[in-house]
Amino acid sequence: VSWLGHLWVRKMQTEAANEIEADYTASLSYLFSPPRKFPPLLSPRAPELDVMFKERKAALWKFISRHAASATAPSQESFNIHDGRLIFHVAGTKGKGSTSVLLESVLRNAKYKTGLFTSPHLHTARERIRVNGNMISKQDIVRITKKIRVADEAAEFPAFINFFDRWTLLALCYFIEQKVDAIVLETGLGGRYDTTNILPDEAVRGVLLTSISLDHQELLGDTVEQIAWQKAGIIKPSAVVVTANSQKESVKNVFREEARHRGVDVSSPSKYAEVEAPAELLSILRATSNAQFNIEHAAYQADNAALVWNILQLVCPHLQQNMTTLFQDAVDSVQWPCRFETFSPIRLSNAAEETGNFTVIIDGAHNEDSVQKFYFGLSQFATKLTQHSGSSQATQARPVKLWSLFGCGETRNWAEMVQMAEHGSDRLILCKSKHYRAMHPDKLASAIDSSTKLSICTGSVHNGLMDLIKQATSRENSAADVIIAVSGSLFVAAEARSALNHEGLAHFKAHDSVHEEDAELPSNYK
């Protein structure tokens, strides 16, 4: 009887798990589906965008307020998301993800219950929404998505709301339910008309504006100043605003003008600050063993960390006494995959003979500025590796070879990026991710006149990476240390991580999202 009972319980558990998985897949299919009606194609500063944003903001916020009332305090006459909560908003071309995750980590170390919303995801859509570092569950996605879908099908939202609108709704509703103390929101695209900007002005306590460079010009504008204007749209009169002093002067002028326009006193360092990393913070970033934030080869992280350091000094002065410890713990422990993510050294377990070590470094660099910085960091890393291999007087320094696996999207300035990768590499393989906008390697190759370094991967990112690894461990390379650099797109980077995991070539922590990959992206993800 007990044996039959055990089988019955297992059968019911399997059926329940299958049902949850089916409901989760259906929820993703809806969340990533196109809008009921596509909006007209407009220029980045078209007046119609203001009208459409106000309509979207009113409808989405009405839903959030109603959800909050039913989920948390039915007796309240009104709902204020900022009551008892710290809310930080982060925008920029590059570094906004690293800045957001570091800010959340420091706040969590300071015993705040945190909510973090970032995009895009690498392996599972659940990565986008986290509370205290833990991904939202499939069940919670299913439950809240059902409510969003009912409202959408009842035409409570404008017909042109898109997948990012739905995910932002889901995140904010979940954070309210979970009664978080602090929320960190990373913008999806731009800022001024981004869905994360629907929060009331008085709700946001801190605005962090990261590095600005050319990206998504068709949507944001053709110059860094026009793009900066889009990003500056998240500035609120009640918020402290910080940006890096290293920004171009023309970009800082745009930020200052927008801040003045929004009623921020730019002459007050406690309200508006253009910051640099203090010596104490630089020491932490040099000493950390976390390659993603070590400024010896990720120098740009100094500016990102400086934004977090300074915004907390201004918004949370009670943390100043423990700031150094909070930052040390956060910088050492924070995991933000595909940002100079280093797997080193790797040695094949089934190698028949002694082979050289190889290191895989994965980075989601996907525009000219970030690719250039990535290859500069690689050169620094290679120099350090050479010095380390020859540190003993009895040991001759081993040669270091830098091989690259590169693929990018068709909307990027791909020719310049490919040329940077070719120039910085001893060998270059071009590949294509599974994303529908990924560019074919043959077209990428057309940016290079002729090169003995170049080859094209006709298969997947997985195949391209494994080809490089096999060659790195061949007899002819046994005397060398090989660095295999993967970049050009977050989608290429994510597929490379998956390949290392599937082949058992890297150790990933038990809670890493690479172990929980969604079966496949919905076909209408685009």
Give the radius of gyration: 24 Å
Mean pLDDT: 89
Shape label: globular
Distance linking N and C termini: 52 Å
Percent strand:
5-15%
Poorly predicted segments = 522-526
Q: How are helices and strands ordered from N to C?
A: HHEHEEEHHEEHHEHEHHHEEHEHEHEHEH
Largest sheet: 8 strands, mixed
Helix content: 40-55%
Quaternary state of this entry equals single chain
Spatially, the strands of the biggest sheet line up as 4-3-2-5-1-6-7-8
Instruction: Report the structural category.
Output: alpha/beta
Instruction: Please count the helical segments.
Output: 16
DSSP summary, beta strand count: 14
Description of the structure:
The structure is a single chain. Helices cover 42% and strands 12% of the residues. The model is unreliable at 522-526 (pLDDT under 50). The radius of gyration is 24 Å and the shape is globular. The protein has an eight-stranded mixed β-sheet with strand order 4-3-2-5-1-6-7-8, sandwiched between helices. A six-stranded mixed β-sheet has the order 9-10-14-11-12-13, sandwiched between helices. Helix 7 runs parallel beside helix 8. It has 526 residues and is of the alpha/beta class.
